[in-house]
Amino acid sequence: MSDFVRLNGSMCTFNGSDSWVILSPIEQSIKNKIESVGTPLRDWNINIYRGVLTGYNEAFIIDTAKREEILANCKTEDERKRTAELIRPILRGRDIKRYGYDWAGLYLIATFPAKHYDIDRYPAVKNYLLSIGIEKLEQTGKTHIINGEVIKARKKTNNKWYETQDSISYWDDFNMPKIIYPNMTKYMPFVWDTQKYLTNQKCFIITGSSTAFLTAFLNSSLFKYCFRDSFPELQGGTRELSKIFFDKIPVLQPTNEIEKHFKDLVDDIQRDFSKEKAIAIDGEIYKLYNLTQNEIEQIGYIEIK
Q1: Tens of pLDDT along 169-213?
Q2: pLDDT tens, position by position, 281-299
Q3: Assuming Cys at both sites, which of 41, 188, 227, 262 could form a disulfide with 213, CB separation 3.0 to 4.6 Å?
Q4: Mean pLDDT across the chain, nearest whole number?
């Protein structure tokens, strides 16, 4: 054992009170390069938010056929137009892939309390929600017995019966270019969204500066290699990608020119994904971090979709 330690041992420095891990010399070299030029994401000009919690997905998340039915029930073109704007496409955690998504044709009736909607201006939506049952939708926490059936209302809040449970003061961030990723996943996929999708509570979104570059970095082999273990592993190999764990990740902050370059790369790979393009983006990131060929070979291509 002593000969093994003498031949294979390496010096590790343990500073501060943060958790630590024993690394090989090449692993230390890669980690040191990342940390020496990186800024923790908590210090970036970005926001990380959870997706929408409706309190009753069966009512507020609808398929395309139900959306078309509601729109067909609008009495005027003005009502139809504002109703169409209220019913927004939504992505769920399970829909997100690396550099892409599989939209399931689902929509959210986005009656956020912070927007102070007058439901009487949306009679087709009002009639649909009433068909679900106001006792199920009211936000009182009360229990009702209707026709012998026990009906539990949504959690008690100050919101109106037709509003989502979340107040969502950051509703406008969904309209910005943003990164979407699932809150719990084996695969750690990230997609850059410019189509103004809403998301459910099984996703997080990141808005703010340099989101195209950050999408590429988070999808990169370098990120998976260095930081996958920064996120706690749950049952079945699932990782919890909560904001508190992202805050500590150090990432190089790109110039405007670099962000524009990565925007083109991300746009291209999201139009037509290929492993070759993902490897090429890895290569662009390795250049920014000045990794050696030996370090690049150590990382390899980590194919987690």
Answers
A1: 899 999 999 999 999 998 899 999 999 999 999 999 999 999 999
A2: 999 999 999 999 999 999 9
A3: 262
A4: 91
- C-alpha span between 223 and 191 (Å, rounded): 15
b/e string for 205-234 if b means 16 or more Cβ within 10 A?
bbbbebbbbbbbbbbbbbbbbbbeeebeee
Burial of 239 (0-12, 13-18, 19+ CB in 10 A): buried
Question: Given this model, what pLDDT does residue 140 score?
Answer: 92
Q: Retrieve residue 76's tokens.
A: 């005027």
Cα–Cα distance between 79 and 118 in angstroms, integer? Answer: 13
Q: Using CA atoms, how far apart are residues 105 and 132, in angstroms rounded to an integer?
A: 21
Q: What is the token pair recorded at 46?
A: 């970005």
**Angle formed at CA 247 by CA 243 and CA 248, multiple of 5 degrees:** 135
Spatial distance between the Cα atoms of 98 and 270, rounded to a whole number of angstroms: 9
Residue type, 119: I
pLDDT at 15: 52
pTM value is: 0.89
pLDDT at 13: 52
* C-beta of residue 265 within 8 angstroms of C-beta of residue 284: yes
Measuring CA to CA, which residue among 216, 223, 206 is closest to residue 273? 216
